């Protein structure tokens, strides 16, 4: 059975949600599932904007054929060639053999890599600034390289003032009937997943996202239709502001993230004591994470949100405890920067993890170390309470 929704009088959402997939891209846990959005424009010519992941192909084709209501599909605009959106192109061509595919030069280069059908026989190549009319609707093509792949583009439709934004402004999370951000409590129920999606999928490419935001600022946008998660038709400033913060690597909150690794609870104890002292000193926004049982995608998301990061870890095989090392590697890969940091190390005979964590953080941009490394030898001792208070004072003093 079809499951579609109207976006405007002539534009329909024909996507679907997957609540079975455990790991998006086989790496990111998605407890709330994920949606793959696609949109059909019913005009003199029919136009589909992107397809979907193969996991929802049945729902997608039921939706598409319902909306087309016996008409053929004339055009497919391919904004992004990652398989979560392009997997169904070949099947579309089997159903609609006269279909014209619209994409840029890189789109078709990738399409030839993923598929074996005769791409050139169907391709119409567009570049930055080109337009295409389906009748009443006029589509403008805007290149958005590295948001999230090199071929990515977004499409602006001038009649409805809709920005079809590809991965941009997307989020993890299945859609539950409501497809508009104003139909849900986005700040309460979606923001954490939107941040986790952004920071882990596109976090590395802040400059490219800033470039896209500058291009978007020149458009009169009434609605943002992303390929994942809710559509924005009200309060666009909310999500544009979040994207501006995330892509400029500015902290979203004046908050302290304490990320600890602990084998037997001693480093954990130090983390908890520090959190308690911070609370005593009036800090309200404190989050404490055990890196061994928190997915690194959540740690990255929180590192983007919080202004202060305290890293606490034992020394392990003469190096940094592996789960913490993995977090540090991901921080580098995703370009985490502009944070205030402090280190707490533990070691029973040769504590060197603090020095090594500091070396890794030094490779990140504009990180400020606000205190000397605090060393725990096996377990925290009563006479170290003052050192933790001193660290807490420095954190408080450096909060805005
Ligand atoms: Fe949702 Fe980069 O694909």
Automatic annotation (TrEMBL):
Pfam families: Flavodoxin_5, ODP. It comes from the Bacteria. Residues 256-396 form the Flavodoxin-like domain. Coiled coil: none annotated. Gene3D superfamilies: 3.40.50.360, Ribonuclease Z/Hydroxyacylglutathione hydrolase-like. Its cofactor is Fe cation. In the N-terminal section; belongs to the zinc metallo-hydrolase group 3 family. Signal peptide: none annotated. Keywords: Electron transport, Transport. This is FprA family A-type flavoprotein.
């Amino acid at each position: 059975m079809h499951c579609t929704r109207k976006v405007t009088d002539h534009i329909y959402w024909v996507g679907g949600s997957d609540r079975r997939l455990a790991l998006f891209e086989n790496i990111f846990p998605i407890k709330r599932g994920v949606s793959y959005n696609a949109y059909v424009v019913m005009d003199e010519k029919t136009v589909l904007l992107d397809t979907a992941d193969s996991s929802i192909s049945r729902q997608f084709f039921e939706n598409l054929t319902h909306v087309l209501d016996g008409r053929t599909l004339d055009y497919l605009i391919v904004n992004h060639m990652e398989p979560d959106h392009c997997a169904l192109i070949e099947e579309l061509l089997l159903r609609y053999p006269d279909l014209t595919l619209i994409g840029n030069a890189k789109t078709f280069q990738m399409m030839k890599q993923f598929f074996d059908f005769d791409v050139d026989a169907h391709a119409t190549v567009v570049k930055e600034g080109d337009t295409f009319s389906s009748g009443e609707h006029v589509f403008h093509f805007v290149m958005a390289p590295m948001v999230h792949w090199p071929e990515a583009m977004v499409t602006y439709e001038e009649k409805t003032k809709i920005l079809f934004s590809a991965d941009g402004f997307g989020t993890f999370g299945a859609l539950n009937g409501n497809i508009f951000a104003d139909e849900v409590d986005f700040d309460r129920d979606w923001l954490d997943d939107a941040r986790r999606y952004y920071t882990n999928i596109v976090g590395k490419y802040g400059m490219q996202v800033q470039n896209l935001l500058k291009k978007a600022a020149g458009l009169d946008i009434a609605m943002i239709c992303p390929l994942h998660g809710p559509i924005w038709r009200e309060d666009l400033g909310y999500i544009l502001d979040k994207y501006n913060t995330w892509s400029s690597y500015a902290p979203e909150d004046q908050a302290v993230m304490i990320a600890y690794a602990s084998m037997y609870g001693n480093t954990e104890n130090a983390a908890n004591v520090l959190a308690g002292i911070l609370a005593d000193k009036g800090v309200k926004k404190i989050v404490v994470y055990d890196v061994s049982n928190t997915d690194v995608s959540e740690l990255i998301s929180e590192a983007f949100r919080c202004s202060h990061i305290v890293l606490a870890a034992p020394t392990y095989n003469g190096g940094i405890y592996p789960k913490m090392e993995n977090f540090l590697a991901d921080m580098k890969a995703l370009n985490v920067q502009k944070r205030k940091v402090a280190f707490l190390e533990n070691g029973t005979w040769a504590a060197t993890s603090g020095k090594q964590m500091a070396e890794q953080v030094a490779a990140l941009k504009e990180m400020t170390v606000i205190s000397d490394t605090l060393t725990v030898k096996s377990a925290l001792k009563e006479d170290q309470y003052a050192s933790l208070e001193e660290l807490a004072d420095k954190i408080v003093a450096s909060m805005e």
